[in-house]
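User: Just a sanity check before I run the rest of the batch. Below are the structure tokens for the first item. I only need the designed sequence back.
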């Protein structure tokens, strides 16, 4: 099989191509309907197929003779623990947890919110929900109470599963008080809350409401996997959009299973028995696709890491893990490698470890700068691949396909479109751009299996956000260009989304928080370049006349508000007071111009700018630091 052949076929005959891929999945009932189009332009894959994702990830692997193989290898330098779960052990743990949830009344179609650190119980909880057909929504631990409350109100969970704490470099993060606060803010009341008590910190439980996870589940009866329709939702993953309200990306069971089987094999080159390491957190899409579901459904061992690239305890921990678990391939965000490079530029810590098992490294989540790319290839001596995808797609859009030959890499490109994705570049009028010309990156419909086809309880918003701008196409929100051979070059988001340390955040949401301060007349928040984190937010604020607070105090208050409302992960530390903001004559703030100004990039002041002198004033404020 070659890349060109498969790619062309996937677009010319999507039904035939994906019907063939679907045969790799152990359905309870194999689909006969491959692709249905709805009147609104969205699609349904494998409509009459019946399956269960937890069965595919666990029971099926045991049936295939992998019962004793390690499924999850938990390695936690922050807690000093390591634990291996075989497929059989994991299946048993998950079945018991699912049985307990079922006894609580949780069943198919109920939502369950997980606010959990990177402990194996997070993966178990996801798989237990999947077993029952309950829809999980994992909220990243770095989000503060307000963000959690927004997600609780949108997902309306019957049950919330949490842990007493998360562990950072330098501190224990108490999760339970954050959840308690979120529940005070939220309108929705879950029926139950269960808390996994970690030895580092005991959470206090509210009598009559909170349950002790360990105690409750130990004697539960196991639950068998429930047969589900392909289109039944597996999970909701909230992601930042351009407004303060996050989008609830919905993933189906059937399309997801087919897409991930395809991706693990053809894109990542993984086979059953291989060891895979998805370096992320279950709070992100990568954690769903590449820590839990993808590797397990492919029969791989998944390394489950609770730690950082540096300081847990040092910049050698990634290389230690690769050696210790004989990792064959990994996914990682460029930020992590930049952090390692900063502390160990010569690769001295790396040279103490045997990376012989490692075949290749995949990087995504944000732009991979060519300097980090070259450094990583030189210190590891392994191929390093940039690839591009989004929470919405759930699996790679562009990538080198390890098991389909003929897709060489090009510097600065996130590679060519993966089979199934018809990637195009268009201008605002919907004209396809010639090679080399920049524009909006879109994907012609139908999106391949696995991609999000609706937003939780808001289908209209899905249609507006993704399908309205370019009829017949999905609008990715990224800008860039293609070269004459189809290699894709991502230049960055064209909306108010930024990527901070590979974490997707909305500057619009930060603006909402800043603008609510009583002394702020108006503000603009945008992403500026950061040596390690890729981007960090910068706020320019205009004060109301006679604002009494001294600048330093105002800055501190705004930083505290964003941390309190959105979370520490926003890395919101930079606030500058300016007299005015540059706007078009119709009053639109020129954020793209501000970003270029702050990054020191060349730009021509737009003719729509009402007063060009404003830019000089702002440049002076930024230069003053
Ligand atoms: N729970 C609670 N707080 C969290 C958290 C979590 N799960 N994750 C991050 N935070 C907090 C951190 O403690 C930090 O708080 P602080 O401002 O009090 O120090 C803040 O959020 C920012 O965290 P982080 O972005 O991790 O910055 P850092 O300076 O602590 O670490 C790196 C820098 C480069 C090591 C880190 O950003 C990193 O590992 N990046 C890679 C991330 C990644 O793999 N992303 C892939 C997503 S697909
Ligand atoms: P998320 O939904 O959190 O996975 O973030 C998706 C966004 O991250 C994309 O829309 C891009 O803006 C960015 N992104 C992901 N991968 C890459 C990449 N390889 N190069 C540049 N940007 C990327």
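Assistant: Here's the designed sequence for the first item:
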């Amino acid at each position: 099989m070659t890349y060109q052949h498969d790619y062309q076929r996937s677009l010319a005959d999507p039904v035939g191509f994906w019907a063939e891929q679907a045969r790799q999945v152990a359905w309870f009932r194999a689909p006969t309907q491959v692709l249905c189009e709805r009147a609104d332009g969205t699609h349904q894959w494998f409509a009459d197929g019946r399956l269960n994702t937890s069965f595919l990830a666990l029971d099926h692997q045991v049936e295939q003779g992998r019962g004793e193989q390690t499924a999850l290898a938990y390695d936690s330098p922050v807690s000093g623990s390591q634990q291996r779960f075989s497929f059989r052990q994991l299946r048993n743990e998950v079945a018991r947890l699912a049985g307990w949830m079922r006894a609580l009344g949780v069943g198919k179609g109920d939502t369950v919110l997980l606010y959990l650190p990177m402990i194996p119980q997070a993966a178990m909880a996801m798989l237990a929900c999947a077993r029952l057909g309950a829809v999980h929504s994992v909220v990243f631990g770095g989000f503060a109470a307000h963000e959690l409350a927004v997600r609780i109100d949108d997902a309306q969970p019957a049950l919330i599963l949490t842990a007493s704490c998360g562990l950072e470099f330098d501190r224990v993060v108490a999760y339970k008080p954050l959840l308690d606060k979120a529940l005070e803010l939220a309108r929705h009341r879950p029926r139950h809350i269960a808390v996994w008590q970690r030895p580092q910190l005991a959470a206090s439980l509210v009598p009559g409401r909170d349950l002790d996870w360990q105690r409750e589940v130990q004697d539960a009866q196991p639950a068998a996997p429930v047969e589900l329709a392909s289109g039944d939702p597996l999970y909701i993953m909230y992601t930042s959009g351009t407004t303060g309200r996050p989008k609830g990306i919905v993933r189906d069971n059937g399309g997801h299973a087919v897409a991930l089987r395809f991706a693990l094999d053809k894109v990542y080159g993984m086979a059953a028995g291989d060891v895979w390491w998805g370096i992320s957190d279950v709070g992100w899409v990568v954690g769903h696709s590449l820590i839990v579901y993808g590797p397990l459904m492919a029969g791989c061992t998944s390394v489950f890491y609770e730690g950082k690239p540096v300081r847990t305890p040092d910049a050698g921990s990634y290389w230690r893990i690769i050696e210790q678990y004989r990792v064959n391939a990994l996914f990682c965000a460029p930020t992590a490698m930049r952090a390692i490079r900063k502390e160990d530029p010569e690769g001295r810590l790396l040279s103490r470890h045997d990376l012989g098992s490692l075949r290749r490294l995949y990087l995504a989540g944000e732009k991979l700068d060519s300097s980090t790319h070259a450094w990583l290839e030189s210190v590891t001596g392994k191929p390093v691949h940039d690839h591009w995808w989004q929470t919405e797609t759930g699996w790679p859009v562009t990538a080198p396909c390890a098991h389909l030959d003929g897709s060489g890499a090009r510097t600065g490109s996130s590679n060519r479109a993966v089979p199934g994705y018809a990637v195009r570049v268009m201008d605002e009028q919907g004209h396809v751009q010639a090679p080399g010309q920049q524009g909006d990156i879109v994907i012609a419909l139908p999106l391949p299996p696995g991609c999000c086809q609706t937003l939780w309880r808001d289908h209209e918003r899905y249609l507006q956000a993704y399908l309205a701008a370019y009829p017949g196409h999905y609008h990715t929100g990224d800008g860039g260009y293609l070269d004459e051979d189809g290699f894709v070059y991502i230049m960055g988001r064209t909306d108010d989304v930024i990527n901070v340390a590979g974490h997707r955040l909305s500057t619009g949401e930060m603006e909402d928080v800043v603008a609510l301060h009583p002394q702020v007349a108006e503000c603009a928040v945008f992403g500026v370049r950061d040596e390690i984190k890729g981007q960090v937010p910068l706020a320019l604020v205009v004060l109301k006349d006679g604002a009494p607070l001294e600048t330093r105090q105002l800055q501190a208050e705004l930083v505290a508000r964003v941390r309190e409302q959105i979370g520490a992960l926003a890395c919101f530390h930079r606030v500058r007071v300016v007299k005015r903001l540059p706007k078009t004559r119709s009053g639109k703030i020129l954020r793209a111009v501000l970003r270029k100004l702050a990054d020191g990039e060349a730009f021509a002041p737009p003719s729509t700018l009402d007063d060009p002198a404003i830019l000089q004033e702002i440049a002076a404020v930024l230069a003053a630091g």
